[in-house]
Design brief:
Length: 379
């Protein structure tokens, strides 16, 4: 990896919190942080054309290694010019390792020190064995700007012994991924595991730092069943006190607005989650009034936009709550598409506002205002 292609500049730090604003430089463009990254699991943000994702304000998108490896296959994507050409997205792309999806197969998974064997129950039922080296080969064929190490993500609750074993395995796999990763125009991030045990989190981080010069770190194993207060008991000290200051910190799979605002205050730089599009397809919207269920009968005669305070293309484009309620209750695909667009814009814009508050040295007030607003009722 060419370290000069992946640098991170911290531009401002808030005096009253641990929030910081920065820029992550990649071969396909700069990423301003803090940033929310829309998830395009199977090479698409569900239902939304690439140009619309860009117009909503996205600077980087995600794709999923497991799903793309199953269909259409890493070799085919490489043959077609790599993921940027295949997705028709020519900005930065991050691919996760696919480990979360692998381990979600539960009883169809057999774990060893060498790798993980699983049954592809959600595709064709075949048996697959992945080593960290296999995982890196797939990632390099996909050609994303940032890829993640293969790790084991324990759910919650879990015994300390189980989480400790996951940390040991993830650390060993991180070392093998680091050795196997050779693509110079792609950054490999390590992943900090450890569940809700701060000492295990610190052990995981220390091992990653001893392996080599990872250009950034993912924080995995949160939002896996625990409540948000339990998460912050270990997340806040881990990020604010212990993680390297000159490298981006990526909280994986977390996406409700209040958690983003609080995590930025702890010093997190990057987020991703399927929540804005998944809940949109279910008829739910983020808003300045908290989370809204547009299936509710109270919206049947409502001529207003989803959110009067929002300036997304949906809220300013004449789409009423009444129309969107009709669309989602009648299972018209446009309803989910419009809500997905609104929710994505909401999170992207929220992170832009958070960044501006940090640059203007007023993030403490921004956090306080948010927590005292109706918008904070987003669970």
């Amino acid at each position: 990896m060419d370290q000069s292609l992946f640098t991170y500049d911290v531009l401002a730090e808030d005096a009253t919190t641990h929030a910081r604003a920065g820029v992550l430089h990649t071969p396909h463009g700069d990423i301003p942080t803090p940033i929310f990254m829309p998830v395009g699991t199977r090479a698409t943000v569900k239902g939304i054309p690439t140009e619309t994702v860009r117009e909503l304000g996205a600077k980087i998108v995600l794709a999923n290694t497991y799903h793309l490896a199953m269909r259409p296959g890493a070799d085919l994507i490489a043959e077609l010019g790599g993921l940027h050409d295949f997705m028709n997205w020519h900005g930065p792309i991050l691919t996760d390792s696919g480990g979360f999806q692998v381990f979600s197969h539960n009883d169809a998974v057999k774990l060893t020190d060498d790798g993980v064997r699983f049954i592809v129950t959600d595709y064709d039922g075949r048996h697959v064995f992945w080593t960290p080296e296999d995982n890196m080969e797939i990632a390099q064929k996909l050609g994303s700007d940032i890829c993640m190490q293969l790790d084991q993500c324990p759910g919650y609750p879990a015994t300390r012994a189980f989480v400790e074993r996951a940390v040991e395995l993830s650390s060993a796999w991180a070392e093998r991924c680091y050795q196997a990763h050779t693509r110079p125009d792609q950054a490999l991030f390590g992943i900090v595991q450890g569940g809700m045990h701060l000492d295990l989190r610190l052990r995981s981080l220390a091992h990653l730092e001893s392996i080599g010069n990872f250009p950034g770190y993912g924080i995995g194993g949160y939002s896996v069943g625990e409540d948000h207060e339990t998460m912050f008991e270990t997340l806040e000290p881990l990020v604010s006190e212990h993680m390297p200051k000159q490298k981006p910190r990526y909280l994986m799979g977390v996406g409700n607005p209040t958690t983003l605002v609080r995590a930025v205050a702890a010093g997190v730089d990057m987020f991703d989650c399927v929540l804005p599009t998944r809940t949109g397809r279910m008829g739910t919207a983020f808003s300045s009034q908290g989370r809204l269920n547009l299936r509710n009968a109270r919206f049947a005669h409502d001529k207003g936009p989803i959110d009067e305070a929002c300036h997304c293309p949906v809220c300013t484009g004449g789409y009423t709550r009444a129309l969107i309620r009709h669309l989602v209750t009648q299972k018209e695909m446009l309803g989910g598409i419009l809500l997905s667009q609104h929710n994505l814009f909401y999170l992207l814009n929220l992170m832009q506002e958070a960044r501006q508050a940090i640059l203007e040295h007023r993030y403490g007030a921004f956090l306080s205002d948010w927590m005292n607003s109706e918008a904070a009722a987003d669970f």
